[in-house]
Amino acid sequence: MSPRGMRYIELAMRLGLFLLAPCLWGQGYTLTKVVANFFDQRPDGLGAFNIVGGPVIEGRNVNFASFGQGGFVDSIWSASIGSPPKKLLDLTADAPGGTGKFTNLTSGGTESGSLRVRNGLLLFYASDSNGTVNNGGLFTMPASGGTVTRVMNYKTPHPLGGFFYTQINNNGFGYYSLDGGKIVFRGRNEALSAAGIYTVNIDGSSLSTLIDNLAPCHPEFLFPVGNLGAPWINSGDIVFYGGTVADPSSGFSALYRNNCQGELLNSNTVLPGNPNASGHSTFGAFRLGGSTVVFSADDANSRGQPRYYKGLFRVSSSGGGLTKIASTLDGLPGLGQIIGSGSFDEVSLDSGNAMFIARDVNDKSAVYLWNGQTVVRVTGSGDALGDGTTIVKIRDMSPNALSSGAMVFRADLSNNVLAVVAALPLSSASPVITSVNSLSDFGGLANFGAGSWLEIKGANLAGNTRAWQGSDFNGPNAPMSLDGVSVLINGKNAFVYYISPNQIDAQAPADSFVGSALITVLTSAGPGRPITVQKTALAPAMLAPASFNIGGKQYLAALFSDGVTFVGNPGLVPGAPFHPAVPGDSITGYGIGFGDVAPSIAPGIVAGQLNNLANAFSLRFGQTPATVMYQGLAPNTVGLYQFTFTVPDVPDGDSPINISVAGQPISQTLFLTIKR
User: Fold this and answer.
1) Residue 11: pLDDT over 60
2) What backbone torsions phi and psi does residue 20 show, to the nearest 5 degrees?
């Protein structure tokens, strides 16, 4: 099929239309739903997604795990921003170096989900078909899919003899990270009562003990520091937790770098900003990046008190003074009084920037980014996504939730679903929308309806200029993107006819929604910030370009049956043939936004047969009705309505043209010239 059905745009361009006015927004973020729990269906046909734990991100690739119908975590997925999820692994796969097939790609008992990602490699815990509870291990695979490799499992020899005990819910195994070809994890030898922190290469070689409870820190204590865990590795350095008893609120605990001699701070360290000088510090999540350690901590002695103290802090990996990033006693942009529950529970660190979540007494929540100097709000309760939903509450995040400024987290949305949401930073290359109207040659309405043609103006909207071609079509189906440029309207793909750096022309998809709709442009630089436009049931308008406005009077662009000559006084628009109409002439006008037709032809489909408007249509010269011979989508076009009618017996002169559909008049004031 050819794109000749869009000849009205070609005509408009020939008449010198489409004037542009670029403008740039400031820095910010755009929000994109990656996948929604119990709402989005899995591509493998096994029901809806049920995401477990926090998703991870590296670059623009998101990984997450999903429960299956049997109550187990049955699959791991990858989703590039703006693309549908792709399954990487499920329970039909053999467990390498184990017994039979995987039985649970679990996150049970681990911190913020079982997935970790670094340098394109995904690290996860899983269990297999071994008939005992000791049936788990650590595995890697490329984050975009590929071969699964065993790092270690219950068949792996322990450095002291025997084998590792890897039941994850017995506090004997869990919490792990990877970087630079090395993995660090907490493990246990049940037979020897040896529990500690171990390092291993990503291929499973060179497994060794970093520290264990058989040679604990502070052996001189009545209760030595033998509760070890939560190791994090970066650039060869490892930070880990050590405590004397299981409940750190009543015993000594500390954060260490590499060994017992590398104690960074301990429970006797007074947290900066804590009004209680005799506080007892306990530690939550912590991450290491370069020379920076960012950690969550609270004062156990202030729990249950009106001025409960909990916050996020920074310390150099070589030790020294602490820096407060945020706390329950501070104000944060967009929130009221900060509460400890749900605040600062997790942190993700990348290139010296720290991402965290905070909540307030009004149950509002937000995602924040600390850039080493200041804290900025990224998104939170009340913010809108590109599909028209809004964030109600930020649920959680993972340790690998921040990558090159892009963030991913789980959030409760206004349509009562829990979704994985990505926040992508806008850059100087991000698409920027400055205005959206129906096509300016059709009145440039501020509202639109399903099937309307939209004119989106802005900057960075595309890297080249072109209209669709026949090769862009899939049979009668119009393209949803051109050269990687697409448009979302409330999360649904529009049909893209024309792209340029400063303008996109696209047809709105079918959708019964009426109200404020969000329109987003996506390019190779990612999605831009959405803009809100009012969507109505109908948005009828006729082709009447600005070049047909003479002396403040707007003439309808109508053609005689020869398809070449326009109705109007000769010379009305230079370069085009015109002559006035006389009663009895058959003429044709074109429109957009007039609604459904019968037989039904959806937006984005080439009209291949004659059809009629589903709603009542009226065309009058003043108050005199015209006989309408055809009212429907023009054959071999997409979304273009054709109205062929006979000029009634009306006086000579410029006759006002009054058009309505379903009782709704068009907003344009139009004229046609009659002269016998």
Assistant:
1) no
2) -120, 155
